[in-house]
Each structure stands twice: as C-alpha cells, then as structure tokens.
Design a protein that fits this description.
single chain, alpha+beta, Actin, Chain A, domain 4, Substrate Binding Domain Of DNAk, Chain A, domain 1, seven-stranded mixed beta sheet, six-stranded mixed beta sheet, 32 strands, binds adenosine-5'-triphosphate, binds magnesium ion
Length: about 625
C-alpha cells in the first residue's frame, strides 16, 4: 500500500486538509464535522493549546492569548510594515526576537511563528490520523505564489516542527488548477483568482494533458477579506462613537466584538441583500449598563465601502495578463479561490472584468487543499504524476551601490532555475567578499526582502583580474533559494552552500522538534484530553544560541563590481576579516545589524569607496 501523504492548505484564516486515495480526493473533516478549521491558536492557562473554530471563538474573552493570522507574520522581520500593522490590530503580543525576527509572547512564553503554524498543522495531522487510523507523517503544504523565500522556508520549518515531512511547498494557485484540471485531459488557459483572508493572488496557467504550466503570477500580500472586515468595522465603530461618544477601538474586548460582528455581517451579505448587525453589549458603561449597537447594512452600502479594494485586485490581474502576453479573451476559464469570492459583488466584478462567468463547480474553500492532496498522492506514487511548471513570483537580486538592487533572476522565470555569475576581486591580494541577496521587485534594495548575506573568503589570493569566484543562484521546485559561491582556482575547497533564512536555525528547529511544542495541541478526539498538557515550561528560545555568527570586524568595506555589457555596476559587497569561515546568518547577520539604520532599513551602499574593491565579471553560464 502506498504511503499516506496529505495536502494542507495552511491559510491565513482557515486551514483545510485533504487526502487522495483510490483515485478520489476527500476533504477531511474534524470531529465537529467542519471541513475547514480556523487557523487560530488559543493558549490555555495550563499551557495546552486549542486550535480551530472553537479557538477562534475564545478571542472575545481572551484576545491576548488567542493568536490568529500567524501567516501574515511568518517569515517577516520585526521592522516590516506588516508586523507594525499586526501590532496595531491584534491583542496578542508581538515582540522582537534576536536578529529582527518576530515572536509571539503569551503568558511570558515566547513562540516563533513556525511554532504557531506548527500547532495548526499538528491539528491537521491529527484530523488525518483520525480518518486513516494511521500515522500521517508526510504532507504537501501550500503557500501563496507571492510568498518569498523567507516565508516558504519558515512554512517548511513549521511542517517539520509539526512532525511532518514536507514533500513539497506548492503554490496555492497551482494547487487550485491541479484540483480543477487533474485527469481531465484539458487543453485550456485559465486564471486563478484567489482572494483569501490576508492576501490576493492571481495566476494565469496553461493546462495541457498532465501538464500545469504557470504563465504568470502576481499578487498583493496586503489585500484580503480582513480588509473588507475593517471597512465594516470602521462603519460600526464610527456609529458607536456617534451614539455614545466613546471610541470602542481603544478597548480590546469591544474591538474584538465589533470585528467578529463585522466579519459575520460581511459573510451574511453573501447570502442576503441586507443584514442587521445587532450587538447587545459592545461595552459596559460607567453605570454598568450595556452599550449596544444596531445597524443595517445593505449590499449596496457594502459595495461602496469596499469598491476600491475590489478594483485593486483587477490592477493585479492586469499585470498578470500583461506578463503572460494574454488578454481576457484568451482565457477559457476563471477559477475562484478563497472565502471572499463567495460575495456576489466580487463574482459580479470578476464576471465583468474577465467577460465570462467564473467556474462554480469547485469549492473556493477546499480547492487548494484538494490540489495539494493530488500532488501529495503523486509524490508517493498513489496517483499519476503531473508536470507542474511554476514560476518565481519575485526578482532575485543582488544589492548594488547607491542602495539599489539589480535583478539576477527575473520574476515569472520558470523554476527550478540556476544562474551563475562570476566575480573577481578589484584589489590585488584581496581576501574576502560579502554578498547580499534580495527578493522583490524594487530597484531600491531596502524595499525588497533581504534573504540573507554571506561572507566568502578562503579563496586563493591573487591579482585582481586573476581571482574568479562563481556565485550561483538557484531556485528549487519549492521556490526556495540557494546561493553557492565557489572559487574557480581551488574549486570545492573554498565553496559553500547557503540556504537562506527562515528565522530559526537548524539547532533551534531540532530543539523545538525535540520539545514537541506542537504536541501541546489538544486532541479533540479525546474530548479535551490534552496531549502534552502540563509541560507548560517549554523554555523560551531566546537562549543566546540564536545569536548570529559574528563575522568579525570589517577590515574595510570592499566593493564588488558587475561588468555587464561592458558597463560597470558597483555591487555592495563588503570584505571582512579573511580568516573567518564562510557563513550565512539567518535571518539577518550581526554585521547586517550594524548596517541597520535608524529608519529600520539596511544600508547597502557598501561603505567607503576608497577602500579596496572587488569586481564581478558577468560570465553567465
Ligand atoms: N461566505 C463568505 N462570504 C464572504 N466572505 C467569506 C465567506 N466565508 C469566508 N469569508 C471570508 O474569507 C476570508 C478567509 O478566506 P480563506 O479561508 O479563503 O482565506 P485563507 O485561505 O485563510 O487566507 P489566505 O489564502 O490569504 O492565506 C475571511 O476574511 C472570511 O471572512
Ligand atoms: Mg487561501
């Protein structure tokens, strides 16, 4: 019998697990019969953890102990916009980890984002084990196509912490297309319009017999159903202020109540023309009397409130079509993914934009996990293999002088891909270089995600033009980036491979796995019995071990130059102490910390130009 491998759509708001067996894909429900579970983790006083829709309900009474939307934070730096935004919205405490990582602090204990997501994944693993009666240890996990390397790596780590071997990180739209077209022998071009809780993605795919080729993918990681809730929430909050003269946004409990009411009202508008929001008690007044709120919202009013959000999705669609050299007339189908696509105003707008009715035969909440299950089954030999040809959604860049970043691998390039460029020292007898790798579409280095940087030394010293260092950028099928540097003269001796950061290093992950942090998740099957409950003294992972390797005092900031079409582009690569081993630091090196300027961004300008320099000879391979 083939091994069991499940497909998991780890969503910002909801998570869904599916399994393909005997040629059929089944969405696995939890003990309550729910086919999706809220991606919410609630921490009980005894240290045990509850996951899912029941955990989501706890947010009203214990908002600071209930973590939602972890996916918005995973793989991000503490100083990023998204983290600031989350701090303003969520009642749980978001704190800074060493090296600008993010941790969630609950009752004095700190958890990394992969640990939080691992708890949600553990719940899915338990659901699958209940259905199969067997241990489930393998999974394909989906991520938004627009996730960068840090976010993918962190998601993979979450799987590992949950006790799952992650067979593949699969892009959500590719999974959706797979669920839609698997085994159908289609020959179509389709668009996958995915509006989820926190992100919007659009992908254009070509589906042939057993081949799923992504032509282009574009997205907005700051746009989702939550933003629609915020609009309704603002309406309700303003109404409350007008009625009582008190701002309910300043009270965490009142805020959560309004937020939940806003979300429910939005969902109801998928079914009804208008909805009556009636909250008996938003807050309690000084006299102890409840202060309630009643407000009717019509579809029309909701449409006005959210029009600009919907229009923003089509700007991204324009971009994707342009990148794939197609117009809406070239498309044979539009697949809807994500809860908000149930809203009639969105379906109407999508129909109008694409000039065709979207497909309604695939469930927008389940289609991604079903596709992941199909792919998982093919990876363990349970289903026939399909060829998935994906693209990288973001440019891979190297920092250059003037705070700029030059692309090395351009977005929408098919993956896997490998690209090599050759460097040489600028100064005679120069000893080392440091290379900064970015992912993103911006020319300004600081607006991209810094994936990591590494020190390369130990190569044979020589005259400037004689030293040749090959730097290879590789994006694997998971969309994960590897960078290798090697010295042409000494070959292996001076080469290293780096896997870029996830926020946790290997030792930390092993430590977390050993402590079985995900084991705190209560098994709903045993009616509240807590597996691992009571071991609430899991140490905080800030034990100094995650301090990054010190690259030593820079003896001088060397510059690296790229000779491209006979044109010199100065790269911001700095030389450090040559005696240091080659290192990669995750997520950000201490040396990078020194570069961290007051505004929270990295200076990539490379320091004093009068110092020794290094050149990059562009010998593409
Ligand atoms: N019937 C409905 N009508 C309107 N919105 C809905 C409905 N059901 C769910 N939603 C909204 O869908 C959003 C969650 O969507 P979904 O579960 O697809 O997101 P996700 O997969 O968790 O997120 P992402 O894909 O961005 O990671 C929430 O904002 C929720 O309020
Ligand atoms: Mg989703």
């Amino acid at each position: 019998m083939a091994e069991i491998a499940v497909g998991i759509d780890l969503g910002t708001s909801n998570t869904c697990v599916s399994l393909m067996r005997d040629g059929k894909v089944q969405v696995l429900d939890n003990v309550f019969g729910e086919r999706t579970s809220a991606s919410v983790v609630h921490f009980h006083e005894d240290g045990s953890v509850e996951v899912g829709n029941s955990a989501k309900a706890k947010v009203i009474h214990a908002p600071a102990q209930t973590v939602s939307s972890a996916k918005r934070l995973i793989g991000r730096y503490y100083f990023s916009e998204e983290v600031k935004k989350a701090q303003a919205i969520y009642a749980y405490e978001i704190v800074e980890a060493p090296n600008h990582g993010v941790r969630i602090e609950i009752r004095g204990e700190e958890f990394s984002l992969p640990e939080i997501s691992a708890m949600v994944l553990r719940e899915m693993k338990q659901i699958a084990e209940r259905h199969t009666g067997e241990k489930v240890t393998k999974a394909v996990i989906t991520v938004p196509a627009y996730f960068n390397d840090n976010q993918r790596q962190a998601t993979k780590d979450a799987g590992r912490i949950a006790g799952l071997e992650v067979l593949r990180i699969l892009n959500e739209p590719t999974a959706a297309a797979l669920a839609y077209g698997f085994g159908m022998g289609l020959n179509q071009r389709v668009a996958v319009y995915d509006l989820g809780g926190g992100t919007f993605d659009i992908s254009v795919l070509e589906i042939g017999k057993d081949i799923f080729e992504v032509l282009a993918t574009c997205g907005d990681t700051f746009l989702g159903g939550d933003d629609f809730d915020d609009r309704v929430m603002d309406l309700l909050a303003d109404e409350f202020v007008a009625k009582y003269g008190i701002n309910p946004r300043n009270d965490v409990y009142a805020y959560e109540r309004l937020k939940l009411a806003a979300e429910n009202a939005k969902k109801q508008l998928s079914v009804d023309e208008q909805v009556l929001v009636s909250i008996e008690e938003v807050m309690v007044g000084k006299d102890g009397a409840p202060m309630g709120l009643e407000r009717t919202i019509s579809r029309e009013e909701f449409a006005q409130l959210t029009q600009d959000l919907i229009m923003r999705t089509f700007k991204v669609c324009d971009e994707a079509l342009q990148q794939s050299d197609l117009t809406v007339r070239d498309l044979d189908g539009v697949i809807l993914v994500g809860g908000p696509t149930r809203l009639p105003i969105i379906r109407e707008a999508v129909t109008h934009y694409f000039q065709q009715e979207p497909r309604v035969d695939v469930d927008p909440d389940e289609v991604v996990s079903m596709g992941a299950a199909i792919h998982a089954a093919s990876l363990v030999g349970e289903a026939q293999d399909s060829m998935l040809l994906d693209v990288t959604p973001l440019d891979l860049r190297i920092g250059v002088a003037g705070g700029l970043a030059e692309p090395v691998i351009e977005r929408n390039t098919p993956v896997p891909i490998e690209q090599t460029r050759t460097f040489t020292t600028v100064q005679d007898h120069q000893e080392s270089v440091r290379i900064k790798v970015y992912q993103g579409d911006h020319r300004q280095a600081e607006e991209n995600a810094l994936l990591g940087q590494f020190e390369f030394s130990g190569f044979e010293k020589g005259l400037r033009a004689d030293v040749k260092i090959d730097v290879t950028f590789e994006i694997d099928a998971d969309g994960i980036v590897n960078v290798t540097a090697s010295d042409q003269a000494t070959g292996q001796a001076a080469s290293t491979q780096i896997t870029l950061s996830s926020g946790l290093d290997e030792d930390q992950i092993e430590q977390i796995v050993e402590q079985d942090v995900a084991g705190r998740v209560e098994t709903a099957t045993s009616a509240g019995a807590t597996k691992g409950a009571g071991d609430g003294d899991v140490p905080i992972f800030d034990d100094g071990q995650n301090d990054l390797i010190d690259l030593g005092d820079a003896e001088g900031a060397d510059e690296l130059e790229l000779l491209e079409d006979d044109e010199l582009i100065r790269l911001s690569v700095e030389a450090d102490d040559a005696n240091q081993d080659i290192t990669l630091d995750c997520p950000v090196t201490e040396a990078a910390n020194d570069d961290l300027e007051d505004d929270g961004f990295f200076d990539t300008s490379g320091g004093d130009l009068s110092e020794p320099e290094i050149e990059l000879i562009d010998e593409e391979k």
